Amino acid sequence: MLKFFTSGESHGEALVAFLSGVPAGVQIDLEFVNRELWRRQQGYGRGGRMRIERDTARILSGVRHGKTIASPIAVLLENRDWKNWQEQLPVETGDTSKHKRVASPRPGHADLAGALKYNFPEARYVLERASARESAARVAIGALAKLLLRELGIEILSHVVAVGKANVEREIAWAEIQASCGKDEVLLNCADPGIEPKMKEEVDKVLRTGDSVGGVFEVVAHNVPPGLGTYVQWDERLDAQLAAAVMSLQAVKAVEIGAGVAAAYAPGSAVHDEIGYTASSGFTQFSRTKNNAGGIEGGVSNGQEIRVRGYLKPISTLRRPLASVDFATREPVKAAYERSDVCVVPAAGVAGEAMMALTLARCALEKFGGDSMTETRRNFEGYLEQLKKY
């Protein structure tokens, strides 16, 4: 069973991620891992924190001579901003007068709910862990999951579908997504060059007004064989697992698989993907002309591209803050402000890739097993032969 968890706070000394269950013999490309971290930090509308941090992964365990050794993998990401917070957030007892309170909760953030839950007098410690800074740790281990899936021929990328009112209204092909993600300069990772300038205008608008803007990203898994996930138990359905994985990302408020939203308003004859049987180079001779199902039917991958969209609310921290209440006095005030982004949709897409990779890698290992990558590939290739003969 592939398992992972993260630890660390936004302004703490470091983020740490742990990943266990990876078979021995997976080739680890640290340059690839660091590029994934770089991709997460890009995008028009990012804040000052991205000018401070230059995320690089330091693998502490589980990898030797460039390959996994089947023991748990620990990855460390140092926070460069820690030097500015050591006195405010010491591990041991420090000078409490230097503690930087979050005096009033920000609407839309975890501040008030977290303070109530843990009985904190203010929201500093809530902010520190609830922050999307944590997603960097997930991107690091998600990159390792991507490298595992790559050995099975599976690739995962994302692109931005909407920012504010600027929206891509056509399906973007895999080759277009590859081209967009391969750029050395990232604006908004929109694969439609005619729409990206309109997305930039949406960001510029909120920059001028002190507001923030959300949007939609789509994560696509390419070359996934049929048979991952199952319908036999509710929590083993692949669509349920992917929905939970993407929904767990900070600021994601809705998840869509395939044409899920539009399908709710359309007749069945226009929604369900008709099946044919023709000679093809796919996993089987069965084919479909559409992919409204988003690559999953009945909780099981069907051999088409898996397409999952995350709907991202605007960032909760506003330079023009909303009404709130002071934690100490209970008097009306404006919400606290901390340095923040105004648009993070491209970065959220990269984090969405990581969550999809971790989910699909777990499902693949559950199906194909193997203590070493050699054994996993052998089982995988045997299954592919089974599909071809079906």
Per-chain topology:
Elements: E1 3-7, E2 14-20, H1 30-40, H2 49-52, E3 58-61, E4 63-64, E5 67-68, E6 73-78, H3 111-118, H4 124-130, H5 135-150, E7 155-163, E8 166-167, H6 174-181, H7 196-209, E9 215-222, H8 238-247, E10 252-257, H9 260-263, H10 268-271, E11 275-277, E12 286-288, E13 296-297, E14 300-301, E15 306-312, E16 323-325, E17 332-334, H11 345-368, H12 373-389
Any descriptors?
390 residues; single chain; five-stranded antiparallel sheet; Chorismate synthase, AroC fold; alpha+beta; four-stranded antiparallel sheet; globular
Estimate the mean pLDDT confidence.
95
Radius of gyration: 22 Å
Q: What is the tally of helical segments?
A: 12
N-C termini distance: 28 Å
Low-pLDDT regions: none
List how many beta strands DSSP finds: 17
Write out the CATH superfamily name: Chorismate synthase AroC
In short:
This protein has 390 residues and is of the alpha+beta class. The chain has a single domain (3-389), classed as Chorismate synthase, AroC fold (4-Layer Sandwich). The protein contains twelve helices and 17 strands.
Structural overview:
With 390 residues, the protein is α+β, with helices and mostly antiparallel strands. The chain has a single domain (3-389), classed as Chorismate synthase, AroC fold (4-Layer Sandwich), CATH 3.60.150.10. Helix content is 33%, strand content 19%. The strands form six sheets. A five-stranded antiparallel beta sheet has the order 8-7-9-15-10. Helix 5 (135-150) crosses helix 11 (345-368). The radius of gyration is 22 Å and the shape is globular.
